[in-house]
Write a structure and sequence with these properties.
The structure is a single chain. This protein is of the alpha+beta class. It has a domain at about 90-190: 60s Ribosomal Protein L30, Chain: A, CATH 3.30.1330. Helix content is about 40%, strand content about 10%. The protein has a 4-stranded mixed β-sheet.
Length: about 190
């Protein structure tokens, strides 16, 4: 009986010992929520096969640089549209029609100055064949300066204009009559080189 009593005591002690010490139970993480029901979607397209050869897109070709020759040609084309200022025989005073021509040219010339910011222009003085070459050079110079002065007074920058006299050396008409001589007595605008 003693043995039974001893066993019973030991069993109760063991039971008390294990029930008195409680273990920390690890909290189990809740399971993830079930996946949301999928909406009906179109089936994914089958992957495309790559072509056997891949062609490269050619690089864009750069624009052709503006050459001095192209710029000079465009400038000359614009200048050829300008009107010449004509003068009376042996005179360097601007006539009314010459003032009108230069006035019309000035707006075109201001546009050219904006489009070609580095361009400079020459006012050429010309004469007919009558008179000595020396006299005509001096008269052509006075005509060029009269036209240049008028252009600067109506707003063309003076630093963009120069003058030159060709006297009788550059005629546009070679007949020997008043109609032809009138065409040669002129101030003409050209591009400076």
């Amino acid at each position: 009986m003693r043995f039974k009593l001893l066993m019973l005591t030991m069993g109760i002690s063991a039971l008390a010992f294990t029930s008195g010490c409680h273990k920390k139970v690890a909290m189990a993480t809740p399971p993830p929520p079930p996946p949301a029901p999928r909406e009906a979607t179109a089936p994914a397209p089958a992957p495309r096969e790559r072509p056997a050869t891949v062609t490269e897109t050619p690089a864009p070709t750069p624009a052709a640089p503006v050459t001095a020759a192209r710029t000079s040609k465009a400038l000359e084309d614009y200048l050829n549209k300008l009107l010449d200022a004509y003068f009376d025989y042996d005179k360097a005073d601007l006539r009314t029609d010459a003032r009108t021509a230069l006035n019309n040219d000035s707006s075109e010339l201001r546009s050219l100055l904006k489009e070609f910011p580095n361009a400079k222009f020459v006012v050429e003085g010309n004469c007919d064949e009558r008179g000595s070459p020396e006299y005509n050079l001096a008269l052509g110079d006075r005509r060029a300066k009269a036209a240049q002065e008028f252009l600067t007074q109506i707003g063309v920058p003076a630093d963009r204009l120069t003058t030159i006299s060709y006297g009788q050396e550059r005629p546009v008409c070679t007949d020997h009559d008043e109609n032809c001589w009138q065409k040669n007595r002129r101030a003409h605008l050209s591009a400076s080189n």
